[in-house]
Design brief:
GO biological process, one term (chain B): amino acid transport
Strand content of chain B: 15-25%
Number of helices of chain A: 11
Structural class of chain B: alpha/beta
Largest sheet of chain B: 5 strands, parallel
Order of helices and strands of chain A: HHHHEEEHHHHEHHH
InterPro entries (chain B): BCAA_transport, Leu-bd, Peripla_BP_I
CATH class of chain A: Mainly Alpha
Shape of chain B: elongated
Radius of gyration of chain A: 19 Å
Family (chain B): Belongs to the leucine-binding protein family.
Number of strands of chain A: 4
Oligomer: heterodimer
Helix content of chain A: over 70%
CATH topology of the largest domain in chain B: Rossmann fold
Pfam family, one (chain B): Peripla_BP_6
Protein name (chain B): Amino acid ABC transporter substrate-binding protein
CATH topology of chain A: ABC transporter involved in vitamin B12 uptake, BtuC
Number of helices of chain B: 13
Chain lengths: 293, 409
Amino acid sequence: MNELLLQGLVNGIVVGLIYALIGVSLNVIFGVLRVVNFAHGEFIVLGAYGAYFAQQLLGLSPLLAMPLVFLVFGLIGYGLYFLLVQRLSRSNDPEHASLLVMFGLSLVLGALMLLAFEADSRSLNFSLEPPFLMFGNVILPTTKLLGLGVSVVITGCLAYFLYRTMPGKALRAIIMNRDAIQIVGVDLNHLSALTFGLGLGLAGITGIIVSMIFPSFSPFIGQDYTLIGFIVIVLGGLGHPIGAVAGGILFGLAEQTAMVFFSGTVAMLLGFVLLIAVILIRPAGLFGVQNLR
Amino acid sequence: MWTITKRSFLAGTLLACMSLPLTVAEAAEKIRIGMTVSSSGNFALASQSGVRGVEIWVDEINKQGGLEFGGEKRLVELVKRDDRSDKQMVARVYEDLIVNEDVDILLAPFGSTLTAAAATVTERLGKFMVIWSAASDALYDQGFKNIVSATQMPVSRMPSAGLEAAHALGGKKVAIVNVDEPFPAGLADGAEAIAEKLGMEVVLKEDYPKGTKDFSLLLQKARAAGADVFFPTSYEGDLISMVRQMRQMNVNFPFSFMVYASTPQFIEIGDDAQYIYSHTNFHPTINWEVNAGLDRAGFISAYETMFPNVSYEPDFQTVLAYGAAVIAGEIIEKADSFEADKLKQAALDLSDNLTVLAGPYAVDETGKQLKMPFPVVQLQPEKGLVTVWPEEVAVAKPVYPIPAWDQRN
């Protein structure tokens, strides 16, 4: 049991960081634009399909497909901002309006994926040698380690961008006070469109990483990822770009260690109990970003 | 442009009147079999796959002059109605088929939900119904007297062939995992009961919620429990993830049986799909010694002749429905009556005496199908998907134990 518990703890951290990556891009979009992106999971699944077809048609490995998918999704996101998101700000209640619009978009994307790719589950043809590494009695698949590494690099780059560069600081300033930042001459529209592009680009890359680690995907699983994303950002703090990392690790650890002692169904239930407990104790999440609005 | 003169009109009317009694007489002599098909809704695809099997049987029987009934050959007429995958509509239409269409016997609609709705009507109106696709155990536990599942075994029995094969090969400890949904959970409960009946020890039985993405800990729990038979009953997406993660973590079981591992989508994942055991009832290597109806080659030929423009090949639904229609015909001939109790008795008398395209037929008093096993198949290098169990239809020896991941080329 001790061996399994140790494995559960390690697995919890690894899976938690992957969950965190799912939440990070969702949180960037919510933090800057106040857009509740209910279509986040569908964009992640589209990223996985992007890697699948890049492999099938261009012979690109999933790792090489990442920059391509990031670029394509980023451009789509940039355009989509002007098509969908910008006009939401004219609504009386932009957050609720965005929730409805994005929920509709998620249904549309799910249906389009079903039409285009059919209902079959797909899997990336990807493996690494050696397939796993042993750390004492703990076994870790190299694919997971690779995904973990990429997640850490992406999160690190994002943190650097947000905390050390001028556009990143401007983005954080939007999170703090979107009216004040316009007074100092920041082009809010352009920066918002960039943020939406960045969020979607990250979602595309996330799709590739999760399809390497959780190997099968189909048009139906977008909502699963959206749910994970929302759990993670609610735990970490709505709108806090890095809070998602803490939320992801916490949720991953709770889920995976509970699974050592209970069934997966009970483990997920305990994960939700943790979520409710955090909301009750710290309604704004661990990083309490809501207070900064 | 046609011009109808008074003379031609009178001549036509006279001809029509002369032929009318003859047509009515012929129709009355036909054996009328009623069923519904779903033109739309969730069950449309499976339902329409099934009805093509019934139509092949009707054509085949009528080419032979019909069924023996009352000392003479009588042609068969299939009376089809639409149910739109709607259980309320099924109840109304089955009543209409019995009361207004005066059908002699009924074939069930597709699936447990619609079949249960139809059974309440056929039971109330005292008609006999032959089932081809309802797998819910609950349906057969409700005390319906006038039903028989001709080809579809109940969910609780579906894991039997896989576990019997595992047991025969030396498997002793079973780990059963399933997604928390009705059908996979029913399969898992059935697998647990069958394994215990076979004297195997169930060392792990665990469910997980829909949407679970990481199975690595679950796989390690199964390994830590000492399982030599791994028996997940989930859908193919989860199974693909499981088998990939088994390789990634070098988790090996001498016998891994996955319900959907025989589907083209699973096989498409490549080398990781090798050696996994699964089951199916329609595959080029499955050829039962049939003593009623067409064999596989005859069935394929009949399908191609009758449905040259259908974009779908026959699938297991077509085979189940065809087999059920064949058995319905045998029951009618044996009973020589359309009374429900006599048909039920004939169905019981024929139990263990028929083998159709879908397999051997045996039923109990509740109408539950006891045989029709889904033969066990295994994907083997260079051979592809081959039938390995039971021995009557096996064409290759099972590869057991499954080679460990790190010992494969």
